[in-house]
Design goal:
Rossmann fold; six-stranded antiparallel beta sheet; six-stranded mixed beta sheet; elongated
């Protein structure tokens, strides 16, 4: 429950602090006094995005701080999940700096907005005037029934399964699009692939073919130059080999004179051996050189195939051609194997739909089981609130389609008068009737949930007199199981509070500020008397106020 609330430098609020108790707390004040400002500050504690324009003094920071007593609520796992330090007296603080930057702290540990929102959902429910209209909103209707049916676990499982189904459906859609595109290009891609496969591409083949083409194209030149080289080496008496042997013999005669001469002889001997080896290899190469027009034509044809492929695909190497061949292989394979892949995807979707249908069926059954009980409880409360002939009908029908919250279509219908026809609840009920129905719904939810605090912002809109008195009784009973805070303009409701705060505006120096005060018994009498009869308090208004308090 909320035990203290401190607001500094926010809108019209300079510095206020509220110490709150268990039970039923009342907040009253004239229109425009600042009640909505206080709710706005509380919303910041619950993770609402900060508005820099809300800072009162732009040279100071705005600070909203709330202390919550969590001793009676098991929230340790939530704190652990959000990586926060758990304290039974938890302090949430929100700061808006003059720079426009916003900061949040939970027990002095910096926290992000998602952590504030996760914790806020377990601590506070702020019912605004606008929320009464949400009774006709289908999402809110499902929220109510699912809360009563304790469907949170089933809903999470269903929504995860639905997300998986959407991923599978997207995959199938992409496969079909790719298959359709591949089918259009299949014949052309297959033709290109066959061309590349027939070329029998291998790394280095182009270089080898180009070398062999040069050899076969220059047979005469090779024969002439190789023969001449052999002749220059091996010609008797004047050939390089003969001259080298003579020089070697000269050095051999003086090799023993010193190590230097011997080294020169060894080196010349090595050259002589190398020259003999070169001559032998030249002769062997010369013997292999012969004109071969047929092979030349074959090599030329292979090279022309490579050059033509490179030109067609706008590349310059065999490596690039091989990469294109791999890509074409994948495209052709995709087209040829598309039906198998599509069949696999469709099978996976069918299995996922089956799982999803199981979850949706469980949701439907649990909703169907709580709806009669819920209708009965709502109608009993409405009877107490001056709508004895009001009957509620909730239609719940299973559909084939998967929606975000299951396969159900739900509609709340109301017959406000005896013998009247049923109509959509937001059309069948007036503003005051909607307020009473919403209070009935909230009071039922309060018995099912363990939410520490609920705040009603003028839930009594459109009602008065005896009905307001009965609404006050319901709020008071709710205050027995949880902390209930009600902002009201009705003295009948204000008189039922266990504690009472008054919000008011006052002039201070050159500005107007909003302030708040907890009223003592005598002050409550005066406040109620003013709510009954205006600023000119009469004896009868005071007597009526005392009666309401008693």
């Amino acid at each position: 429950m909320l035990t203290t609330l401190s607001i500094k430098n926010y809108a019209l609020i300079e510095d206020i602090q509220m110490n709150l108790q268990e039970g039923f707390t009342i907040i009253t004040g004239e229109t425009g006094a600042g009640k909505s400002i206080m709710l706005g500050a509380l919303s910041l504690l619950l993770g609402k995005r900060a508005d820099f324009s809300a800072i009162r003094d732009l040279e100071k920071k705005c600070v909203i701080e709330g202390t919550f007593n969590l001793a009676a609520y098991d929230l340790t796992s939530l704190f652990a999940a959000e990586d926060l330090d758990y304290e039974t007296q938890t302090i949430i603080r929100r700061e808006i700096l003059p720079s426009g930057k916003s900061r949040a702290f939970i027990n002095d540990t910096p926290a992000n907005l998602s952590s504030l929102q996760a914790l806020g959902e377990q601590l506070l429910d702020i019912h605004s005037q606008h929320e009464t209209l949400s009774l006709g909103d289908n999402d809110y209707q499902f929220l109510v029934i699912d809360s009563l049916a304790n469907n949170s676990g089933n809903l999470i499982s269903y929504q995860k399964s639905l997300q998986q189904l959407k991923l599978l459906q997207k995959k199938l859609h992409n496969l079909k699009e790719e298959q359709a595109q591949a089918a259009k290009e299949y014949d052309y891609n297959l033709f290109l692939l066959n061309e590349l496969q027939q070329a029998k591409l291998e790394e280095g083949m182009q270089e080898e073919l180009e070398e062999r083409y040069e050899e076969l194209s220059n047979v005469e030149e090779l024969t002439e130059q190789l023969g001449s080289a052999v002749n220059h080496i091996q010609q008797e008496e004047i050939g390089a080999a003969a001259s080298l042997k003579e020089a070697r013999n000269n050095l051999q005669r003086i090799a023993n004179i010193s190590s230097g001469y011997h080294q020169l002889f060894d080196r010349l001997q090595s050259v002589n051996i190398e020259l003999d080896d070169i001559a032998t290899e030249l002769e062997a190469t010369l013997e292999k050189v012969e004109a071969n027009p047929e092979e030349l034509a074959k090599v030329n044809d292979k090279l022309q195939v490579l050059y033509n492929l490179q030109k067609k695909h706008m590349v310059s190497t065999v490596t690039e051609l091989k990469e294109i061949q791999e890509t074409l292989t994948e495209k052709v394979s995709l087209s040829e194997n598309a039906e198998e892949e599509i069949a696999k995807a469709e099978k996976a979707i069918a299995e996922q739909r089956k799982e999803l249908t199981t979850f949706a069926s469980e949701l439907h059954k649990s909703r169907k089981s709580v709806i009669p009980v819920f209708i009965k409880e709502v109608e009993l409360i409405l009877a107490d609130l001056g709508m004895p002939n009001a009957t509620l009908k909730i239609e719940l029908k299973e559909q084939q389609e998967f929606f975000p919250n299951g396969q159900d279509k739900m509609n709340w219908l109301l017959s406000a008068n005896k013998g009247g026809s049923y109509n959509d609840i937001k059309k069948a009920a007036s503003g005051g009737e909607l307020s009473r129905i919403m209070l009935a719904v909230k009071s039922i939810l309060a018995t099912y949930s363990k939410l520490p605090t609920i705040i009603f912002d003028e839930i009594d809109t459109g009602v008065s007199g005896d009905i307001a008195q009965k609404m006050a009784v319901i709020l008071q009973k709710m205050g027995e199981v949880m902390q209930v805070i009600a902002i009201t303009h009705l003295p009948q409701i204000a008189g039922k509070g266990d504690s009472h705060f008054r919000i008011y505006k006052e002039d201070a120096a050159n500005s107007t500020i909003t302030n708040i005060k907890e009223l003592k018994k005598e002050e409550r009498v005066e406040e109620l008397a003013m709510m009954l009869g205006g600023k000119n308090i009469t004896d009868s208004a005071v007597a009526h106020a005392k009666a309401l308090l008693n």
